[in-house]
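Practice problem. Given the sequence and the SMILES for adenosine-5'-triphosphate, write out the predicted structure.
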Amino acid sequence: MRRSCAPSMLKEREIEKRRKIDKLFEKEGDSDDKVSSTTLNEQSWGTSRNRSTQFEEQTAKENNDTFNSKIIFNAVWREMTKKKHKTWDGDGLLEVQLNPPRAVLKDSTGRYMGTNAKFEINNLEEGYQMVVGGKEIELLEQITDGNQYFAIRKQYAENRWNSEEKVQSKEASKKGKITTLFQTPYNLKHEKLEDRNNETKNVQENKLTEKLSFNVVWREKTTKKNKTWNGDGVFDVNSDVKRGVLKDEKGQELGIEENVNLSDLVIGSILLIGDKEIEILEVVTSNQPQILIEEKPKIFTSRENMRITKTDGFILPCPPENYIGILNPTNLPILAVEVSYRLAQLLRPHQKDGVSFLYECVMGFQNPKYRGCILADEMGLGKTLQCLTLAHTLLKGGPYGGERVLHRVLIAAPSSLTRNWENEVNKWLKCERMYAFVVGGKHKLGSYFKQQHVPFVIASYEFLLSNVAEFQCLKFDMLICDEGHRLKNESTKIVAALRELNIPRRVIITGTPVQNDLREFYSLIEFVNPGILGNYEEFHSHFEIPLQQSQCPEASTEVKNLAAERSKELKQISETFMLRRLQNVNGQYLPKKYEYICFVQPSELQQFLLQKALHLYTQRKETILKDLTPLQIITVLKKICNHPSLVARTKTPNLLTRTLERCLPDCTEMGPFDSAKLELVQHFLISSAIQSGEKCVLVSNHTKTLNMLQGLCDFLNIKCLRLDGSTSVGERNDNVEKFNSDSDDSLVFLLSAKAGGVGLNLIGASRLVLFDNDWNPAIDAQAISRIWRDGQTRDVHIYRLVTAGCIEEKIFQRQTAKLSLGDCVIQNAVENNENIMKFTAEDLSNLFCLQEDYSFCQTHENLNCNCNGDGENLTLETKTNNHNINALTNWKHYKSPFDTNFLEVFSFLISNVYIYKTLLYIFRLLAWKMQATILCSYLALRLNRFIL
Ligand SMILES: Nc1ncnc2c1ncn2[C@@H]1O[C@H](COP(=O)(O)OP(=O)(O)OP(=O)(O)O)[C@@H](O)[C@H]1O
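Answer key:
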């Protein structure tokens, strides 16, 4: 719509118009009619009327074009707010008209949201924030400027669609060429003009298909002011006959247009198709995948057979020939599926392999009956990016006739990680105009229905469980379950709820697929590929029993051979749907990581209490403590190791704790020195946080221990942040963001291993102390990985504290030395005391045996290592048969008194005096590049033993 102009502007335009007329006449050499613009009068104006009319039309057209030229930006918007932590409410488009300046904001459904006519055109660039129609907006990338816009339209109209080209196209197709399909205006946004010119040239050389599909939103034709869209759809256009068919999401025909104006087929155009209005969102058959125009579908038998395009993106494996009949029953042309160039540039080699593997699994290339897989890479290898790349590629297209494989993807994650997923989607896919909708809190699933073309829905497991019926109303094509070991128990409600959604492709992401036993592993497999291993009884008798039996030291050769055979078989099956790479793959991309295991001698008070507790336990049968369970004594011993005062701070004291409490000094007389580990941490905080200003993470499995550590920080005047089970999701994310920012002065992050171990990124710190350890090594391993991640710029130091000569050292040995009883045993013990018998009698007596001397390191003794404890001359006289404990021989062993050089070189900034007194041994990982933490190698071995 044209706006009225001010009189002075009109005058200027008139003069300009006349100047142009003069110029035109000059050009034509018609000197008779040459009229000076300054001497124009009615008569002369009259004499040149015809030509003037002709030129007026041209000028008017030009003006009109200029007038209509638009710059279009992708944008995000929110209601105006004074909140400190602002989030965006939605996506939109800002259409900027240049003359007169006018910016129109539309939401992602195309609904008008507001106008602003007062802005400085020069300011409009990516990242610029402004207010339009009462909404705050931020400009994202520019989609096209006026010239590009028209160039593209022209390109569409002239280069793409003329019949001459179609003839060429057919000829090209006969030759079996791979054509590079044109790119949509959106895709063009990052390209230089010259690239586009080349592209145009290519298009003229190569040719096109006759049918194009566009993703659209549609609504009934309406005159309402505030229009909304009724749904998603597809608009198929046959360019030969200019016939377009509009279909809804289910493929039902909604309308037909017999005379489609091909130059109107531009993203953002609103067209009338029958009685429906549509807006074109994107071209389905865009630059990827490339269409192979062949009379018969061509089947690629190897990657080499596929021509690499000029983008040099990375091409995913082709469908296997032997399954092609099942996978592509309608015999559609087979297309090369290419990961977008931008993502391909970002992916690391192991990630490209991962994406290819995931693709083969979810496409049924491994086995057409199954579409699920487990990505079991260790922590920090970029599982998220691999899954998002897979989803992005399949949301854009697929191998059979270019049809999209996915339309909507559900991501289930622990509540603490939903925001993280949203951030990752934005980080990697925002440039591709793909966004995520996080359900939960104020964001109900109902509001998603208005944004149905947002392809990712992210929900926490808890939310999914309580709203499963609502999720059933939506059709998802792929499910990604982050930290998928949550699904390790088949009978849980969440597994049932997710199954009810009937999502055909399922991907589990977990760094720890085998946590405790093979049954859990079976459950994960059964979830992603139901039936692939038969029912549990079959699995149990065929795999689990022989493998378990072979663990027994007295197992016969026959039993061991059978187990080896079954293990191989299980490995072969699982290789088709599970991929696991170890952390060392990341070594080349990250700074160095030093790991230390610090064995400390318990304080006198700790020694006294440990002895007392064990004595009471061993004598229990003759005393009132006869009902004392192993679990109760384990809990108490662990508390003593953390700090004796924790024994007293219990809500439900039992006879044992009451008895021990009586032996404690008054709480005002106790201090950090009563716990060897706490005293070590105190020295550590003084030297690293206070003196060097380095941020560090303190991890514990117990809330009360975290309270105690927080008390220590307060005492030392060190500002800290905290994340445990009681921290709300919003607070978690805020605390993490705060801690990682340079501007925040918190030096310590207190982290509960169980509540916050997974997925968190705490790269603000370069040191991490694991204050206590868990039976389940996976939990410790998760926590350790929080600071050695992408984005970390400094060398990382990780300290594991182990109280020597008592239960902590036993737990540690158990983690490293043999298949532990793990969480489930402890858990079962709570539910059913008889299950504690899963500990062998020897296990139990070893666990609770009294220690006479706490001044030496049992673990080092067990290694039979005769090193001098100076980190050199590591020799093992007799290597134990236990391969897990042999993992410790990759570490250097240092014995107190420590060489000052060692302490300086390895940044162990603790005063020597203290170290001589309490710190018995330090094990340091020999080669940082190996990154083979005890825990990781332990897990790998567990996996190896069973399945790898
Ligand atoms: N190719 C890459 N280039 C740059 N950064 C990357 C790359 N791949 C992953 N990252 C970043 O590395 C970090 C870790 O990735 P991610 O969280 O996906 O790892 P993960 O394997 O899921 O680990 P965890 O199991 O601990 O969550 C993220 O911040 C991610 O953005």
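Check your answer against the key. The longest strand covers residues 70-79.
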